């Protein structure tokens, strides 16, 4: 057989195999972007003002949740805390695929094109963290650290895929505090500030450095700490309005924040103070800002139960609205099933048009499901690509040159109608009133800040880049072996 025909024959036969082979490949830079895309400026001090932010949440702050939060109006999204050491030996892998382009002069030309474009930082046995270029302009990466040098090394690993880096100074869980991280930093201000200073010095100017703290028991001590932190050159400060010993079920002491906001304003640094604690959504953010004077509000548990809470009209009947779309997008992006199942199991919103029986059926199906295959009846066709495109278009439709979704500033502006109870979601007077009817094993344990040590739990992504029929190696199945759920 002529060598060219043979090559054609092999390509025809093997093109299907190429499709099935690893869709992933290493890449030094994110997938190419459409030239039509509106260019977005880097974050600046104003980017943290007049916003409603998605809080960092281990597990619950997974990539699909962040994308849905952005779709529904979150101004910026924080990723889950990743401990610096976990990232040090991670390998950056992009979801790309080799595709046949042409045969010329007895050479086979292959194109390496983006499939989903998901960027994974792979550890030894699992992805430590995943992101997507579409969220990059709005993405703050949260780091857990007790060492300036390691923090800087870890930050350098991810800085091309993020817009800002945030230091977790509030996690009260022993796995953090025993290692001197999280809330332990609150009582070790020298170390806390040395990490922030090191990050600020090491990061390029367009990467913002921020911190998330809790109150110290004494207000004067808190102000002293805030003064030192602000003087490190951070771009914004988030204050979780609880002390280290307070549990989530304890009401956040938001009235204590105003003095801190005024104090930071008095320092003349023009940085945003972001309130965190007990905010229920976009509408409720007006009340919180009125009480505290904070520039912005950050939401955790209300977004965990409904990532559309950033909209002035959050989704209701989520068994019909949010859940199927979330499942489709999560599958399309290869989000690990157990992580997806955990996130979906947290969802809860008022039932208005659909029935409780239908909602129960969906929930029971999810609880029993051991893989995406088991939820097909909920999602209908697996058209996640279309759902994902819709998310991308919505995010990209944000005003060019602005980091705020259109209408966001108006949405959270403090006005006389603050605290309006128009939205059913906002009617509950505290997050604890949003009950979850899910299997106990998938509920965040009460009083727990981080449900498990940081890490996305996503499967390890194969690093196979060249189709075996070209490289001469035996093809390996790219799909990771199913993990127990
Ligand atoms: C499931 C879960 C995971 C969390 N993970 C983190 C984390 O990784 N980093 C962090 O700073 N705070 C974390 N938190 C705390 C939240 O960011 C937030 O400070 C806290 O829940 C209070 O906000 P809320 O009243 O809106 O829930 C987590 C909270 C929850 C519920």
TrEMBL record:
<keyword id="KW-0819">tRNA processing</keyword>
<feature type="region of interest" description="Disordered">
    <location>
        <begin position="441"/>
        <end position="485"/>
    </location>
</feature>
<dbReference type="InterPro" id="IPR018517">
    <property type="entry name" value="tRNA_hU_synthase_CS"/>
</dbReference>
<keyword id="KW-0560">Oxidoreductase</keyword>
<dbReference type="InterPro" id="IPR052582">
    <property type="entry name" value="tRNA-DUS-like"/>
</dbReference>
<feature type="domain" description="DUS-like FMN-binding">
    <location>
        <begin position="53"/>
        <end position="341"/>
    </location>
</feature>
<dbReference type="Pfam" id="PF01207">
    <property type="entry name" value="Dus"/>
</dbReference>
<keyword id="KW-0288">FMN</keyword>
<dbReference type="GO" id="GO:0050660">
    <property type="term" value="F:flavin adenine dinucleotide binding"/>
</dbReference>
<protein>
    <recommendedName>
        <fullName>DUS-like FMN-binding domain-containing protein</fullName>
    </recommendedName>
</protein>
<keyword id="KW-0507">mRNA processing</keyword>
<dbReference type="GO" id="GO:0005737">
    <property type="term" value="C:cytoplasm"/>
</dbReference>
<dbReference type="GO" id="GO:0017150">
    <property type="term" value="F:tRNA dihydrouridine synthase activity"/>
</dbReference>
<dbReference type="InterPro" id="IPR035587">
    <property type="entry name" value="DUS-like_FMN-bd"/>
</dbReference>
<dbReference type="GO" id="GO:0006397">
    <property type="term" value="P:mRNA processing"/>
</dbReference>
<dbReference type="InterPro" id="IPR013785">
    <property type="entry name" value="Aldolase_TIM"/>
</dbReference>
<keyword id="KW-0285">Flavoprotein</keyword>
